[in-house]
Write a structure and sequence with these properties.
By secondary structure, this protein is of the alpha+beta class. 38% of the residues lie in helices and 27% in strands. The chain has three helices and five strands, in the order ααβββββα. Strands 1-2-5 form a three-stranded antiparallel β-sheet. A two-stranded antiparallel ribbon has the order 3-4. The chain is elongated and about 60 Å long.
Length: 100
């Protein structure tokens, strides 16, 4: 599902809302998640999951074509960990107990 399909689905389920208002709401939610992560904060949506930022240290990588070593700068990357309810629904109600 892409963002426009999400907006359309929400608008269909809530006909009392204008589609432009639903679009504004969805964009605001995504913008707030992005802003919080840019500030290094964790965003938790109970039952769904948690968005966080992980730091990757600088390292030496390899050029896949030549095999030569290449320096790779340190960077921050987004990370998502699923919530228990989402994991259970994806696995048909059974949870393996792993908290990876």
């Amino acid at each position: 599902m892409i963002k426009s399909e999400l907006i359309q689905e929400i608008a269909m389920r809530h006909p009392h809302l204008f589609q432009r208002d639903v679009e504004r709401i969805v964009n605001t939610i995504f913008d707030e998640i992005i802003q919080a992560m840019a500030e290094g904060n964790r965003v938790e949506l109970r039952g769904f999951g948690a968005f966080s930022v992980k730091q990757r240290d600088a390292r030496m990588g390899r050029n896949p074509r030549t095999g030569d070593p290449v320096p790779v700068d340190a960077k921050r990357v987004p990370f998502f960990k699923t919530g228990k309810e989402l994991r259970e629904r994806l696995n048909g109600g059974t949870d393996s107990g792993d908290d990876d």
